[in-house]
Amino acid sequence: MPAKMIIRKAGELDFPAIKSLLATMKLPSEDLQKELPGFFIAEANGKTAGCIGLENYGDAALLRSMAVYPEYRNQGIASRLTETLLQQAAAEGVKEIYLLTETAENYFLKKGFRTISRSSVPDTVKKSSEFSHLCPSSATVMRKEISLKKKILFVCIENSNRSQMSQAFAKILGGDKVEAYSAGSRPSGKVNPRAIEAMKQLGYDLSTHDSKSLKDVERFAPFDAVVTMGCGDACPWMPARKFIDWQIPDPKHMEPDEFNKVRNLICDKVKELLRELEVI
After folding, report:
1. Domain final position from 145, 176, 199
2. Smaller CB count within 10 Å for the chain: N or C?
3. CA 29 to centroid of chain Cα atoms
4. What is the per-residue pLDDT for 166?
């Protein structure tokens, strides 16, 4: 039976469990406060499975102590912990998150972090225990910018029609308040000329878009909303606050008049979504 997983804020009663987890994973814990401010804990069927910590230094923050017990890996726990922390950082007004890692550089690259030099780190973060003395100078330094814009991912099968037009309408209607992305569970590699023509009628050049896979956009996670259209079980979980499925017919082989009806339906759906997200 799959484990029942919850992510919650950690507190003083969790101190022994998190201290033990970090020791098992050979991560520093000497500077931990017993109240565990900024820490989150993942529990599977009531047992500690993982943790992550956020140290807030104003505009900048430090992601630290992300750990998952080996028996709970490959279940999306690290992604959910990271998503929770990034959402918390955004809520606290953090603009940039930094981290140090010796083993997880590739993982964090997929989460939108980028490798930087130690000299690029703000002095406030450099004074943290991890930067000043707990982590070796050979550790990789990484940074991720926190966007205050609403991030939306639209997913269909081929990323050729519906999701492409949805992305376009989100950009048109949301302007600089939205970061819109699209992808396909089985991307075709091209945008349908019929979709390009349909959007051209509204003054939008869809020919500048590319047909992308979910792997191409996972580095932009977490999202405020992931909208799926027809990909069913082929649409894997993505870190997001909200998941929505739109029952919109695939217009791939439709004649122009019918195609434009689907285009207009998508426009109405995107407007509704942006209102729900308080963008418009």
Report:
1. 145
2. N
3. 27
4. 98
Closest CA to 227 of 211, 212, 216, 238: 238
Q: The domain containing residue 221 runs over which residues?
A: 150-277
Helix orientation angle between 162-174 and 256-276, rounded to the nearest 10 degrees? 50
Q: How far apart are CA 137 and CA 131, in angstroms?
A: 8
pLDDT at 1: 39
- Cα 181 to Cα 152: distance, rounded to the nearest angstrom: 6
114: enclosing H helix or E strand: strand 114-116
Supply the residues annotated as catalytic. Answer: 156, 231, 235
Distances (CA, A) of 83 to 44, 199, 241, 244: 17, 33, 9, 18
Could you tell me how far CA 133 lies from the centroid of its own chain? 30
* In contact, 69 and 17? CB cutoff 8 Å: no
Q: Taking the CB of residue 279, how many other CB atoms lie within 10 A of it?
A: 18
Q: In a 3-state reduction of DSSP, which class is residue 133?
A: helix
In this structure, what token pair is assigned to residue 61? 């923050």
* Structure-token pair, residue 74: 């490959």
Is the pLDDT reported for residue 34 higher than 70?
A: yes
Asked if 91 and 216 sit in the same domain, the reply is: no
Torsion angle, alpha carbons of 128, 130, 132, 137, to 10: -150
**CA distances, 30 to each of 19, 34, 48, 126 (Å):** 9, 11, 20, 17
- Supply the CATH number for residue 52's domain: 3.40.630.30
Q: Verify that 168 and 109 share a domain, yes or no.
A: no
Write down the pLDDT at residue 78.
Answer: 94
Count: domains in the chain: 2
